[in-house]
Design brief:
homodimer; 186 residues; mainly alpha; Arc Repressor Mutant, subunit A; Tetracycline Repressor, domain 2; 2 domains; DNA-binding
DNA sequence: CGACTGTATGTCAGTCACTGTCATCAAACG
DNA sequence: CGTTTGATGACAGTGACTGACATACAGTCG
């Protein structure tokens, strides 16, 4: 076995998730993660900025931005954003078991929740940029993006917590309808 | 000068903000903050859970919850929530200089932004609880709270960034109107 | 006034996340 | 086969944060 086993990053991600599940996030040291992946602590920090980042990636954001950027012009911005989340939700649904495990780890640690929130904020910022590029002005662009995040957050909570798993994209759509009802004031 | 100078916590908060402004958050050590406050590093951690927490308090959350809990029943939930934020905004407006300094420090550091986001999430959770206690059911309660946070976030950004300072509560109200417009789909 | 108690602070040792630096090894290339 | 490039290892160091114990101040009671 050479020094160059393939997919070091992936091995670190898997080892980290396993250990976070087994003993908890705080009780796991980076040295332990690296050892299980057959690497050293220093190498871990070459692949991930910190101990938390190993649970997060930017694939969701890229997916959402691409989706909104490619939406038909006639679709209302809020519907384009939520439709993008529905697409992402369908993908998450295909890996529900992984999503459940990962979310259980995050729910058990405030530091990980912070990281998740800033990732969502980054997505909101990227979506607002995309909407502006499509001609929407501020503050509408920012608010539409934030509204989309809120809808997704609520729907995700429901999807994760419900035992009889309902269709995630459907939950997202229902969440949007509820937001429209709630804000439909005079 | 005895060991018992008054208001240790307040001295730590002020020393921390000063140093974060002077040399930046990361370049400031907790030992330096404690020294400027006439205390030790260990005492800092008895007053604040970590180096970031010294910039945050829960007074805003308590204020908002009290306001929403005391709102008239006939007022729509989203309006009660936003009215609460308008009240909080008026208070922040009275300390605009402090708000600007504090926000400049936070904007310069991702870790502080994370902490700010989880504080806002905590507020959203508390407001949702309050709305539920007033008879609103989920997911409406959670969505209303999240919508209020979104409105506040956008309005706050504008209030901070604009040189000719417009009335903050007014910005909040306008932000809500914009959200209503944006979500007023079919 | 003096002992007693509770709480805030000081002291010290220790763990661990994270970083800078340099050495080393594998693969690709000419 | 030598060179180069990039990923990894080895190691020392800083600083955030914690646990355990000692100490000093403030209030109370006799």
């Amino acid at each position: 076995m050479g020094r160059w086993e393939p997919n070091a990053r992936g091995r670190l991600e898997q080892a980290a998730l396993e250990l976070y599940i087994e003993r908890g996030f705080e009780q796991t040291t980076v040295a332990e993660i690296a050892k299980r992946a057959g690497l050293t602590e220093r190498t871990f920090f070459r692949h991930f900025a910190d101990k938390r980042e190993v649970l997060f990636s930017n694939s969701l954001q890229e997916l959402l931005v691409t989706s909104v950027a490619g939406a038909t012009d006639s679709v209302a911005p809020i519907d384009a954003v939520v439709a993008a989340f529905e697409g992402a939700g369908a993908l998450l649904q295909e890996r529900r078991e992984y999503s459940l495990q990962r979310q259980a780890v995050i729910a058990a640690n405030p530091g990980l929740q912070e990281r998740e929130l800033i990732k969502l904020a980054s997505i909101a910022s990227a979506l607002a940029d995309t909407l502006r590029r499509r001609g929407l002005t501020d503050p509408a662009a920012s608010l539409t993006a934030e509204a989309g995040i809120a809808v997704f957050k609520i729907a995700f909570e429901r999807w994760i917590s419900e035992t009889n798993q309902r269709d995630f994209p459907r939950l997202i759509r229902e969440s949007l309808d509820e937001l429209k009802a709630v804000t439909a004031g005079k």
